[in-house]
Design brief:
Blueprint (H helix, E strand, L loop, with lengths): L6 E3 L4 E3 L3 H14 L4 H11 L4 H25 L3 H13 L6 H7 L3 H10 L2 H17 L5 H4 L4 H14 L6 H15 L8 H8 L7 H8 L9 H17 L8 H17 L5 H14 L2 H6 L3 H12 L1 H6 L1 H17 L1
Antiparallel strand pairs: 1-2
InterPro entries: ARM-type_fold, SPIN90/Ldb17, SPIN90/Ldb17_LRD
GO molecular function, one term: Arp2/3 complex binding
Protein name: SPIN90/Ldb17 leucine-rich domain-containing protein
């Protein structure tokens, strides 16, 4: 089909005629043709952006997400970084359509996402980071063969991106980085520590990233459902320090701020919220660290918060929190 059927040309640019029915017909014919080139992909995106959400969902998921498959192939074969960026931004925009990110994994998208991450200039890397995070948070199981693409050299370059973002005044850049970190952690299955934890402890400057990880935890709400992974990573960083008898990843001031955040969260979270149990477990890990033995930051406040959780009313409503609190109190009574 010739595009002039639904387009008009003026002296400078193509002007799209937003006739929904003609646009839908055009999109469907492209899907049926199983052959989409660069310019046609741009047309399709323009038409889709002006349709109702239900129609967008219909065409994105049509024919086993053919459009996503075609866009992935176009990205993989393109050397035009601006065009690649356009397609990635569009895919990110439709990522909430169920099955979209699963299709990205089926297309082995990491093999082009990872190289593009390092090829883009810093100001545009967040688009790739966002795509990776969307895959990590929307796909339940990522094949081991795909996760292996995040190898040692990737992790080293990836952490370097985070360190570069430290120079930015706006902390949103580091938050993009950390959401990807936490999404990656979510899919790592290991009997010890993830490769990321080992890598963070092997890079001398990496602890400079610690304050912003804690700052992320201090936010009122996470942009992605990864608060549990943030707590898990912090817990592993403290545990690794004890197990291998190396200085803890976080600076002393960071640990004080972290304890303040944890105490507030334990107090504010609803009873029976699993996050409250996790905050308590992280607190216990910190309290057992030699660094805290010297600090003893807010020890009285900690004891009070824990004691409140063991009161009969609290124990009845949230027995799990009460049980963890009793365990921590027992440790404190024998150690401090």
């Amino acid at each position: 089909m010739e595009s002039k059927e639904i387009e008009e040309r003026n002296d400078e640019d193509w002007v799209i005629c937003y006739d929904d029915e003609k646009a839908k017909k055009c999109i469907q014919q492209y899907i049926d043709s199983k052959k989409i080139n660069k310019e046609q992909s741009r047309e399709i995106i323009t038409y889709l952006q002006n349709l109702e959400y239900n129609d967008i969902e219909t065409y994105i998921s049509a024919d086993n997400f053919y459009l996503i498959e075609a866009f992935c192939q176009l990205i993989e074969n393109s050397t035009d970084t601006q065009y690649v960026l356009e397609l990635i931004e569009f895919i990110n925009a439709v990522s909430k359509i169920e099955g979209t990110m699963d299709k990205m994994v089926q297309m082995e998208s990491f093999k082009w996402l990872i190289p593009n991450l390092f090829m883009f200039e810093e100001e545009k890397q967040y688009n790739i980071l966002n795509t990776l995070t969307l895959i990590f948070t929307n796909v339940r199981i990522i094949p081991e063969s795909e996760m292996k693409k995040f190898d040692d050299s990737f992790l080293e370059g990836f952490i370097d991106i985070g360190l570069n973002f430290l120079n930015y005044y706006d902390t949103k850049w580091l938050h993009y980085f950390y959401y990807t970190v936490l999404g990656y952690q979510k899919h790592i299955i290991s009997t010890t520590y993830s490769p990321l934890v080992y890598k963070l402890y092997s890079i001398k400057k990496a602890p400079e990233l610690g304050p912003e990880l804690i700052s992320l935890l201090n936010r009122e709400k996470f942009d992605y459902p990864l608060e549990d992974q943030c707590l898990s990573l912090i817990n592993d960083l403290f545990s690794y320090s004890v197990e291998f008898q190396v200085p803890v990843f976080f600076f002393t001031l960071d640990i004080k701020v972290l304890i303040d955040i944890i105490l507030r969260a334990i107090h504010n979270l609803e009873e029976l919220d699993p996050l409250r149990w996790q905050y308590l477990e992280v607190l216990f890990t910190i309290l057992q660290h030699p660094e805290y033995t010297e600090l003893q930051h807010k020890i009285d406040d900690i004891k009070q918060v824990l004691t409140d959780l063991t009161l009969p009313r609290s124990e009845e409503k949230d027995p799990s929190s009460s049980m963890i609190a009793k365990r921590i109190i027992s440790y404190l009574n024998t150690s401090f």
